[in-house]
UniProtKB/TrEMBL annotation:
Domain Dienelactone hydrolase: 68-261
Xref: PANTHER family: ALPHA_BETA-HYDROLASES SUPERFAMILY PROTEIN, CARBOXYMETHYLENEBUTENOLIDASE-RELATED
Protein known as: Dienelactone hydrolase domain-containing protein
GO terms, molecular function: hydrolase activity
Region (Disordered): 1-67
Amino acid sequence: MTTKLLTDVVARPPRPSRGPWSGGLTNGRRRSLDPARAGVGGPRDDGGRAPWGAHRAATAPPGHRRTPEEGTMAEVVLFHHVQGLTEGVRTIAESLRGAGNVVHTPDLFEGRTFATLDEGMAHVQELGFGTVLERGRAVADGYDAGVVYAGISLGVLPAQMLAQTRAGAKGAVLLEACVPVSEFGEAWPDAVPVQVHGMDGDPSFAGEGDLDAARELVDSTPDAELFVYPGDRHLFTDPSLPSYEPEAAALVTERVIRFLDGIR
């Protein structure tokens, strides 16, 4: 979705696979849980199935909340999707807080939310994508440099921009979108780990170039992970929307929390 919106080009044809699990588990965190590269379904590391808000860190016992004595908690700036700062986005943030992280949820739409993707997109087109990016940059100026930038769909634009261009970024979590690294620089910063999540049949993620961009990111970056889920829903991670898919969202929760546990 974001690739097409940002570059206004026709999505590239699918790249041929370079074999199962391109990147493997070598070179640091490089990893691709992508069924297209590992056979239908691929290996599983599912863990729990609880919905957003019910998870704790996979490395911690039930009910555990990480403390400063156990390690520095990750600080996250989570940018909302095209329908705004919904209750579902707030729930996602709360689940990450429940695992001991500090999570900020800036509102790039100044209090407005939208019932449908089309309504939200109309608002974004009225604002302009440049305005969305600049609002994201202005928000980041209010936080310390050492944060993890996360975004959902539209929110990936400011999250990825800041992860690539703002010195000191600790990591990036790109949910349901990814744009080519070349949009914001020559290469992904070596010191910035990144996770990408999306559905293999989502017309926005898989059909408009985002999945291709994510595969290229994983192939070219030592500390990158790509998780591809079966399904055709966009905004499947937001529990307040009809597009919510609880099983896949549960895996996203677990994997993001595990990723944040590794941020120090």
